[in-house]
């Protein structure tokens, strides 16, 4: 394909970019792109990838690497590039999660990891519970030399691994601990690698091992840099200590161009180990230029104005967003609802939702109920009143075995299985056919350019779907039948092939966790379903109002957002001016395209702890109404 001159290049699939996005797209060196709510950062990254590939700035055989924090974000970015770029160029764009990338390096180059830290193969993926970490710290303190015991007693259970293990560079040759922190970190590693027959590694550990691997093996580090001269890092505000140190060792050579995209005003993952100074460190360590994007393609002008009031509480220098979306609602774009009782709040909320949907012709999926925590409690309160009005609530933060509903629906295996079920229930489902066919080619290790092999795979899929359609037509949607069909699906896909094909399932329990969750959710979805199509609609949340925690809402958007539980009970840990609390509030507000409503119920608690949040709404001119 002929190259496009940089001055002649135009965006693909969209009309134009904002001036600051053009500047960031053409930037030759490392860039810190500050992309606030609705800035279109996924689109920006896709356009920059296409620009680099089509202009020859990244010529063959070099590749562009994009690192995201969530699997669905990595998949969405890859799909966006494929839509905007010829296949021969899109094939040189690699989009992975941080954990998949670092785990892949560890698995591929295990023998190059220094012997003192080298895990055996195979190893398990560990997800330590809070109680397990607490027990470890207690045992470690009791076994430590007396002079270090007080330091170990001061370590927090919630951030010990992310902050202390994640922030501690492993020496190439293990040395005896010289402090309480080094002693505790050494014992942690002993428990994961040396203290058991089969290693059990967390993703923080894998991030640290990948960094050590590159630091101890300059030739591998050189090969990585030679393969990926351009690197994108999405949601940079959530970068952990271990992840940032990996980036530093991998790409801070002055020759790799790194584009970090994020917004420190949306940093709500500090509890999970996100660095508070990630942007500042990146600018200093990589010599990056900071470029803020101004456009907001999501929210209406009134909401963008309110968002700016909250943004200035987080960053006095925050620039005002420029709304690109029109206001489509009459009256207030934001309100505070003040109710005396929970029953009264639920009754008003139900009536308001039903009337607003009817008046505006909106779907239940256009609305979202956000809470700070304990979504199950709000589900118990609100499901019955909403059901009486014919509205179904869907708790997307609900636990399914060892995962959550939202994580299940973003899972690759679940997406493939649902595509097969859609094809079993409907004869015409082109998107489902495309997804299932491509997945089966990968699972059967077929080269897409091998036409004969691709035809064999399609024939295999067609035969299976014929049998599946007959079975689903014969068997009504019941719990027992759902279990039978689930077994047929995974038997056809071959879970061994799934584990070999998809990196995230290669080791650990993720595959078993998702198989279990899929079966549980499909069995629950048959309730009240007159057909398999209706069952699958229920599975995917069609015509249901989503309920989730603010943390689960990151990256999502809705016409109307209703934040339930803005009170001291739900915000028990908040203190006035607390940055993470303000960021959580900002993220909730910025999910809304047309309206944001904040519900306070006197029956749940007071509002002294959250008085600063209410003051921000007052300062922004948001009216409060008694309901």
How are the SSEs placed, and which strands pair?
Blueprint (H helix, E strand, L loop, with lengths): L18 H8 L4 E4 L6 H14 L9 E5 L2 H14 L2 H4 L2 E5 H11 L15 E2 L4 H14 L2 H8 L6 H6 L14 H15 L5 E2 L1 H14 L1 H10 L2 E4 L7 H11 L5 E6 L15 H9 L2 E4 L2 E2 L4 H14 L7 E2 L10 E6 L2 H19 L6 E5 L3 H14 L3 E4 L3 E2 L2 E2 H5 L2 H14 L4 H14 L7 H24 L4 H15 L1 H7 L8 H16 L6 H9 L3 E6 L8 E7 L14 H11 L2 E10 L9 H9 L4 E3 L1
Parallel strand pairs: 1-7, 1-8, 2-3, 2-6, 4-5, 6-7, 9-10, 11-18, 11-19, 12-16, 12-17, 13-16, 17-18
Antiparallel strand pairs: 14-15
What does this structure look like?
By secondary structure, the chain is α/β, with parallel strands linked by helices. It folds into four domains: about 5-105 and about 215-295, Rossmann fold (3-Layer(aba) Sandwich); about 115-210, no CATH class; about 330-370 and about 550-625, Rossmann fold, CATH 3.40.50; about 405-540. About 50% of the residues lie in helices and about 15% in strands. The chain contains 26 helices and 19 strands. A seven-stranded parallel sheet has the order 13-16-12-17-18-11-19, covered by helices on one side. The termini are far apart.
List keywords for this structure.
627 residues; alpha/beta; Rossmann fold; seven-stranded parallel β-sheet
